[in-house]
Every structure is written in C-alpha cells, then in structure tokens.
C-alpha cells in the first residue's frame, strides 16, 4: 500500500461544482482600467454590454432577456445573504480585475534567488461580467496571475483561461451559463425564471453543453510536459507560457479521448516516478438536482447524520473493490496536505486540516475554524488515532514537493484572519510531541495586508542531500489601504523576507498555485512548438 493524499470530501459535504459569472448588462471587466479604489462604491454598476454576436432581432431578444433577469435579481429575488451579495463578496481584495499583458516589475527589497528562475503561477476566480444577482466567492472565470523570473528580473501578467464558457459569453456579450452555486436557492418563481433564461440564452447563442461549462478557476498542474488549468466541473484546459511571460489558452484537453468527465482540481505527482494521480467523485449518488431545485437547496450542504470517512486504496488497484473506508467521526477535510506509509504499509498517516464548523464551509466561511491534525490509520486493526498540530486557524498548506507520499517534517500553512482572508503563513514541525504546539516560525503580513496559499520552492531540487526546508516560500500579498500588491519571497527555514517584488497592479485573492522551474518551462514550450 502506498499513500497518496489528495482532496477528499467527506459524506457531510455534498458538492457538485459548476460555475458561472452572474447576470447581464455589465461591463466586460477584462476591458476596464483598474479602479483607483477597491471598495464596493467603486465597483462598476450596470451598463449596456456590446452584443457582439447578436444583430437585429437577436439583439432585441438578448436585451429583453437582460431586462427580465434584472427584474428577477432586483425585485423578485435579490441576494438575501451577505455571502451571496456580489457587492459585498467582490469587494476589496476580492474585487475582479482586467487582463494585464506582461509588464516589468520592480524588485523593491533584497534580490531574487537563482532557483526562482522560472514562473510562479496562481489560479483563481475573476468574473468576466460583474454579477447583478446572487454570487458566491468560489465562482467566476479562471484567471491566471503569472510572475516570470529570469536572472533576478521579474515580469507579471494576468490572463483569463479562455474556456468554452468564457469565449461563448464574451461572444454573446452577456452571461449564458447560470450560477449553480447560488442562483437556485431562492424562491420557486425566481428559480423557474433563471432556468428559463438559461435555456433561452443557450438556444440563442447555440451553446453546446457537450463542450462543458466549467471555469477552470481552481488550480494548476504540470504533467507530461504540459501545463493545465483545472477545476472540479470540467476537463482541464491546456495553457502555454510564452518566452515573454504571457499566458495563452490552447484549449480543452481530454488526453486523446481517455478523459470523458471532469477530474479533481487537486492532482498529486509522485516526485520519484513522475506519475500523476487524480480522481473523480460520483455526485449522482448524493446530488439530486430536481429535488434541490424544487426545494431551493444549495448544491453544497452538510448532513450531521452522516459520519465522515476516508478512503484508502492501493496505488495500482485493479478496481474499486480494493478500496477500504474508515469512519472518522468529526473529521471534515477538504485540503489534504500529505500522506505516507508506516510499518511496512500496515499503517497510513495523513496530515490535513479539519473543518470544525462544516455547516459554515459554504455560506459563512468566516465562522469556520480549520484545526490542523495528524491522522493515523492502522490497516490491520482499523484503529484510528488523531491529534491536533496547532490551535491556529490553518488551511491551504503546502510541503516540499519532493516529499509527496513520503514522511515529511515541515508544513507551511496559510493563517485565516478569518478565512477566506489570509493574514500570514506559519511553519509547522511535525516532529514535535503530540501534546505540543507545532508552529516553529511565523510571518504575519501586517494590518490590512492579505495573502493566499503559500508555495515551497526548493533551493536545490536535484540535490538528494538537501535539507527538507532548504528553500523559499512564495506568495502574492496585497495591502488594501495602500492598494499595492507584492510578490514575497521568504526563507523557508525562518520565514524571514528575502525579496519583495512590487507588482504593477492589484492581485485579487485566489486559490491554488504552482512554481515551474526554468527547465520545465523549456519542456512545456517545446511540447507545443
């Protein structure tokens, strides 16, 4: 048995992720100039969008549909929760930005280490059209924020992932795909109206559902010398990073017809074998769309009557019959960090944050607390032991990628302030005793400064004798009051700041990122040309 951790959703979470940028009559954000301030007062209000694909009668019908949706969103079913009100959700660090071509940056502190030659790339939601109706933070078109580093100099750019959904809506001049996470939990009349609007828009625009409706806004992955933007609701989208540091979308990728459905946005790569492991969960057993539609339920819910489980399966299992399930009451994990074998494969150890208030994981994220835990499963006896590693609110953590599926000592985790805002990063030492606080280093970003997921970059990735924490932690950090974003480089041993790059404009809060070293970039570029 060989352990590979990934993202597991316990039975207490019902998730089917489909994303949409909300209602029409909004300016296209990617064509706008960055606002001077980022409060809700400065977010663009409704305005007529050029109807690129529609002329004559088509434009009239589109305008009629836009007006109908305005009535639904403003009069029949306006956002009733702060967590679904776009004017609150998309404010300050979460406000969307337009695309930015490769732009030179200034190194304002220290110097960029040679091992950072390559690109740090991060994904995240950034709606093409500013929503008028209900909107959840997890939704929005995928936008890639890339800092290209070469010989101590840096270039930054922001580009949308040009998905089929994105291109279709850009061509139509308005949203087509409904907002599945937040548009269908209002009143019955509003739900029926939104379904009718979706059908009408899909017919007018000739939207082909077989081409997918995902946003590719969650993560990034490199395997087979290819770079992908990934999301839970669709196939991966292949990207190309140009020599100038620009990001281009090459298209939806099905691996020569072998991938017929969406896959996880959190694949894992074995650093020794080069194998990439991904999974897909079957929502048909738990998600009942018609029932949820009639009741106005959200697609993400918690069921306290269910007991969370983790599944363990041999790496080269022939079929699902080799999968074993273990119940772990009260353990609700979304972002597993690492897992490894012990006792010659007779035990599995997993490091992961536990969401203590799972009922708030979707609608009131600020009320949730993520307790980092070490979980040990004895495969012979079925005994499970757990102990916390820190009392802090920690999530979206990373390790040295060379230790995936191996016993590791150090973890670097984002500190919730509370989540979804990230106020700092901490380093945990797993070798500490079970009754001790495992945090051994900390870097808080300061008042009104917020970051995101940290990422570990090894100083000498090819050196087998290098220490596990010999490297750097990188992240984007934004100061809301100053309106300034930076790319921070921290020493992985102490979390002292080694270098800071002033970015040409604000980087919104997002999801997952990766670092691609120079040699890998060359292979990615060669595989395209």
From TrEMBL:
<dbReference type="GO" id="GO:0009570">
    <property type="term" value="C:chloroplast stroma"/>
</dbReference>
<dbReference type="GO" id="GO:0016121">
    <property type="term" value="P:carotene catabolic process"/>
</dbReference>
<feature type="binding site">
    <location>
        <position position="335"/>
    </location>
    <ligand>
        <name>Fe cation</name>
    </ligand>
</feature>
<dbReference type="GO" id="GO:0046872">
    <property type="term" value="F:metal ion binding"/>
</dbReference>
<keyword id="KW-0408">Iron</keyword>
<keyword id="KW-0223">Dioxygenase</keyword>
<dbReference type="GO" id="GO:0010436">
    <property type="term" value="F:carotenoid dioxygenase activity"/>
</dbReference>
<dbReference type="InterPro" id="IPR004294">
    <property type="entry name" value="Carotenoid_Oase"/>
</dbReference>
<feature type="binding site">
    <location>
        <position position="512"/>
    </location>
    <ligand>
        <name>Fe cation</name>
    </ligand>
</feature>
<protein>
    <submittedName>
        <fullName>RPE65 domain-containing protein</fullName>
    </submittedName>
</protein>
<dbReference type="Pfam" id="PF03055">
    <property type="entry name" value="RPE65"/>
</dbReference>
<keyword id="KW-0560">Oxidoreductase</keyword>
<keyword id="KW-0479">Metal-binding</keyword>
<feature type="binding site">
    <location>
        <position position="266"/>
    </location>
    <ligand>
        <name>Fe cation</name>
    </ligand>
</feature>
<comment type="similarity">
    <text>Belongs to the carotenoid oxygenase family.</text>
</comment>
